[in-house]
From TrEMBL:
Assigned keywords, A-Z: Membrane, Transmembrane, Transmembrane helix
Domain CATSPERG beta-propeller stretches: 2-403
Gene Ontology CC terms, in alphabetical order: CatSper complex; sperm principal piece
Domain CATSPERG Ig-like: 445-571
Chain positions covered by the region annotation Disordered: 827-851
One Pfam family linked to the record: CATSPERG_C
Protein name: Cation channel sperm-associated protein subunit gamma
InterPro entries: CATSPERG, CATSPERG_beta-prop, CATSPERG_C, CATSPERG_Ig-like
Biased segments, Polar residues type: 842-851
Organism: Carlito syrichta
């Protein structure tokens, strides 16, 4: 890798927190290269950007130096933003083609082409389904902010304020916007505005701009000079304090929506929880100047100065600790080099500083044997703080080093002896890696975040062991024996109007310990209704053992861990993964119990059971948590509407809004209603019924103008109909913040026929039946005659056949010899006579008797 990072200044890693699939880092001098990673720099790529880099300097864009350096690089969930000189680009397409210069060149889209952009400010959190970015201008539009919105990969910019510039609205001739922070909860911008005066001293103000209302408000005026703290760790700025001769030079702001803490930084550090009253943190020296802040949004942050110093601060406290350079840092680095660690070298340059979860990391460029490479390594915050605490204890003690019960501080000495082959007996055991771990189960810690639905609560306990005089007896001899704890636990809420906390203390005498039971509860004030996991209100709770921040550590097999200060994000709203489901099992059971019977369809479908039309229908629903797997009965209110239907599943039709109103509203007068209920609770406009699990049930109507009226049976069984049902609790349920909506199919059978169709079917059925009866009677009376006629017809047919056969025979025998002619004639006459006698006899028998 080329030595792009040798002796260069570090730069911040800007991205949307928890959303960006890749991270990019610019700042390589005179190169159109960025570092890109999708694993927080466990692996990375050096990518050259294919952008045009055209020069558009003019009289309204006061830029005199042209460079290829990528100054600002911001990663969002769906796109990337970069700034080169005064030009702004964003990337469209898939990230793998960034490596291909011939394909990626057309993917970089230039925006704000006629503007001179001096800085890009990121919005660390998304809101309302979009991500945001702020572009600060100079030149002709100085005093305005270009507010960018990224929704589904589409980028749009709007110049704010919409009417007058910030300078005009605050009543100054010339000003400059130094920094912008976006507040997603109220769609507001916090602007750090510098007033420029040619003769007087420049000063800065914090201005709040409401995007929806397009109005502006001055929140705070920053003092012109650094306050005189007088040896205090912090100072509340009231305007009555004394000041030094050092001017305040603000450079930026940083806002944490979880704890509402706003920091203004420059050659000072100001902290505020309401954006109007500020505290000056005096531990940070006014001789240094902050270059950028790195926040974990979990309760701590790191500070990088212009001279590449690293400072550390626990949010909500008043102390700032220098990590590097320090004696603890130098001792740690020297030990790591002695261990020949691949993460340290004698020559190194910090590229950036960032948080991954709760852990602080450095990206550094190391040079070993004239070979350079980038390395990601953790910053030993706890080890350095432990070292500083020990050194401070040394200074306060007289007579040298204190007696420390742990052998950890002597481990370095024994390692030094082993490294020089001077260990006793020539044997050395590294105690840091030699240990017996008895319990490898997950540690008892607070969750990563807490979700609170409407009126719900979350409880946890803090167990503290007392030592020395932390627990003492209260009262004199002869009084009731009680213990008084010297250990105090404070619970700090970022939004006391949104959540409340209760703390119960219990002293365990036999264990010399104190148990604090803490309960957080939502106050039902700060949220309306929303979709599951969307637009959650961000807040936090900090549990602090008084006086322990930065001083209490726990030794683990992974090293020391900071204790005494717990910050947990709390998200108010509808937790992610929750949904409404139709409880078919309990609905069937309850309907069978209430109606005393249950008749399913002729053709049973296990996935979609039938319900009888004349029975009262009692629906029940479940709340399913897809994250935890929990499930429970829905106890809230809801509105039920039939929004579609058809006689078969394939013949379903969605109804229009006007039809939905007619089919479901109790105000309908067109005889179109599908169902009704005896529940009298309705919406505010009286348009629909409001139901709950305690409702009296639904009675099906299917009036004459409804789609289920006069349904034609599909078979010999009774008519049936499929209803598409919509259930929603929007604006009618006070039990939850979740905006549930469920659509499911309901199979109803046994629908009645209309009067006309019933009469028609009766007439047709009766006619067919009577016709069959008459036909049967006719057949019974005519059957003998029909049989006799058939027999006579058969006899005559047979006679005709015989006669034809005889005449045919006689004609064929006409040519006989003379000698046989006479006997033949005699025989023929005899035969003829015989036949005549038979015929006469038959006629005689066939005549009716006269007697």
């Amino acid at each position: 890798m080329p030595q792009y990072f040798v002796n260069v200044s570090s730069r911040p890693l800007l991205h949307t927190v928890g959303q960006s699939p890749v991270l990019i880092l610019g700042g390589i001098p005179n190169e159109k290269h960025v570092l890109m990673t999708d694993s927080y720099f466990k692996d990375f790529s050096l990518v050259e950007l294919s952008i045009d880099s055209c020069w558009v300097g003019s009289f309204y864009c006061p830029q005199t130096v042209f460079t290829a350096t990528i100054y600002d690089a911001i990663a969002t969930e769906s796109t990337l933003f970069i700034r080169q000189n005064q030009l702004v680009y964003y990337f469209t397409g898939s990230y793998p083609i960034l490596h291909e210069s011939d394909r990626s060149s057309g993917r970089w889209v230039r925006v704000l082409a006629t503007e001179c952009i001096k800085m890009l400010c990121p919005a660390h959190f998304h809101g309302n389904g979009s991500e945001y970015i702020m572009a600060l201008t100079t030149g002709k539009h100085e005093g305005y902010v270009h507010f960018g919105t990224i929704t589904d990969g589409q980028v749009s910019f709007e110049m704010l304020p919409r009417q007058q510039s910030v300078c005009e609205q605050i009543g100054v001739d010339k000003c400059s916007i130094i920094w912008a922070e976006y507040l997603p909860s109220g769609r507001q911008l916090l602007l750090l505005v510098e007033h420029k005066h040619p003769t007087a001293v420049n000063y800065c103000q914090v201005v709040r701009y409401n995007i929806a209302k397009d109005d502006l408000e001055i929140l705070y005026t920053i003092p012109a000079f650094v306050p005189e703290a007088g040896g205090l760790a912090f100072l509340m700025i009231l305007g009555t304090e004394s000041y030094t001769n050092t001017s305040m030079a603000p450079k930026g702001m940083s806002y944490n929506p979880y704890n509402n803490l706003l920091f203004i930084w420059g050659n000072f550090l100001l902290q505020s929880s309401n954006k109007q009253n500020f505290i000056y943190l005096a531990d940070f020296p006014k001789e240094q100047s902050i270059k950028y802040l790195v926040r974990s949004f979990r309760g701590d942050m790191a500070i990088v100065t212009e001279t590449e110093e690293i400072w550390y601060h626990v949010e909500g406290t008043y102390h700032v600790y220098r990590l590097s350079p320090s004696q603890g840092w130098e001792a740690h680095v020297s030990l790591q080099v002695m261990h020949q660690s691949p993460f340290y070298a004698s020559s190194e340059t910090m590229v950036t500083l960032f948080y991954e979860g709760r852990k602080l990391y450095q990206l550094v460029y190391l040079i070993n044997d004239q070979q350079g490479h980038l390395v990601k390594r953790p910053v030993p915050v706890e080890e350095i703080l432990v070292f500083q605490q020990h050194k401070q204890y040394q200074l306060e003690m007289q007579g040298g080093d204190p007696v420390i019960p742990s052998d950890n501080l002597r481990a370095d000495y024994y390692f030094y002896l082993a490294s020089n082959w001077q260990s006793a007996g020539g044997v050395h055991i590294d105690m840091a890696s030699y240990g017996k771990i008895y319990d490898l189960e997950a540690e008892f810690e607070l969750p990563e975040r807490i979700f609170l639905d409407k009126g719900t609560q979350y409880s946890f306990s803090v167990f503290l062991s007392g030592q020395g005089s932390s627990l003492r007896k209260q009262g004199d001899l002869g009084t009731i024996f009680q213990l008084q704890s010297q250990v105090a636990v404070g619970v700090e809420l970022a939004d006391p109007t949104c959540i409340e906390a209760s703390v119960e203390q219990k002293i365990l005498i036999n264990r010399r310990s104190v148990l604090f039971s803490i309960t957080l509860k939502d106050r039902e004030f700060c949220y309306d209704q929303g979709i599951s996991g969307h637009h959650l209100r961000k807040t936090s709770v900090m549990v602090n053992v008084v006086g322990s921040s930065g001083y209490c550590f726990q030794n683990t097999h992974q090293g020391p861990r900071l204790q005494g200060n717990l910050v947990v994000p709390v998200l108010i709203g509808c937790p992610p993964g929750k949904r409404l489901a139709f409880d078919i099992t309990y609905t069937l059971e309850y309907n069978r119990l209430q109606n005393k019977h249950y008749f399913d369809c002729v053709h049973v479908d296990v996935e979609m059971p039938c319900f009888l039309f004349r029975d009262v229908f009692y629906p029940f629903f479940l709340i399913q948590d897809l994250v935890t797997g929990d499930s429970g009965s829905f106890q809230g209110s809801y509105v039920l509407k039939v929004v579609g239907g058809g006689p078969t599943p394939s013949g379903l039709r969605d109804y229009s809004e006007e039809e939905i109103y007619r089919f479901n509203s109790p105000l309908d007068r067109t005889h179109s209603r599908i169902w009704t209920t005896s529940t009298e609770t309705t919406t505010e406009d009286l348009a629909f019924h409001i139901l709950s699990h305690r409702s009296s049930g639904i009675q099906w109507l299917c009036l004459e103008n409804s789609p289920c009226y006069d349904t034609i049976p599909q078979s010999i069984s009774a008519p049936e109909f499929f209803f598409k049902v919509l259930v929603s609790n929007r604006a009618v349920d006070n039990s939850t913040y979740c905006d549930y909506q469920l659509t499911f199919l309901l199979h109803i059978h046994g629908l009645p026929l209309s009067a006309k169709r019933a009469v028609f079917i009766f007439v047709v059925s009766a006619s067919v039946f009577l016709g069959l009866v008459v036909l049967y009677i006719i057949i019974c009376f005519l059957w003998p005659l029909m049989v006799k006629g058939c027999n006579l017809l058969c006899w005559k047919v047979n006679n005709l056949i015989v006669s034809e056969s005889y005449y045919t025979y006689v004609s064929s025998s006409g040519m006989l010899s003379a000698s046989s002619r006479r006997p033949s004639m005699v025989s023929s006459s005899i035969s003829t006579r015989v036949e005549e006698d038979k015929a006469e006899r038959s006629q005689t028998l066939g005549r009716p008797s006269l007697t």
